[in-house]
Specification:
The protein is mainly beta. Helix content is about 5%, strand content about 50%. InterPro entries: DUF3127.
Length: about 110
């Protein structure tokens, strides 16, 4: 599932050790979607992906997300985990330039066998 919007807040990084003794860390961000009725969504980035994705406040992004809920002591908790980041430039797609024929350059035109 994809989610697009602007990163408006970066929450403090948290970390610890699991029951098996493995270290873990998590960075959370708040993303605000666009449109007439914008929504705010808390997103989680885990482990090495924190540096790999390098999300910054103010950035426009499209994120690949997984949504998962789990039960603990009779209550349900939902987490939105980021697995992919695509950066956009102010909501504009790839730059549209003139179409260029890359098969040959002008100096090679006479060398073509046909």
């Amino acid at each position: 599932m994809d989610l697009s919007g602007k990163i408006i807040t970066q929450l403090p990084e948290v970390g610890g050790s699991s029951k098996s003794g493995n270290a873990w860390r998590k960075q959370e961000y708040i993303l605000e979607t666009g449109g007439q009725y914008p929504k705010k969504v808390c997103l989680s980035v885990w482990g090495d992906k924190i540096e790999q994705f390098g999300l910054k406040v103010g950035e426009q992004v499209t994120l690949g997300i997984d949504v998962e809920s789990r039960e603990y002591n009779g209550r349900w908790y939902t987490e939105v985990k980021v697995y992919k980041v695509d950066r956009t430039h102010g909501g504009i797609g790839p730059s549209e330039g003139p179409e260029v024929d890359t098969f040959y350059s002008e100096s090679e035109e006479d060398k073509l066998p046909f």
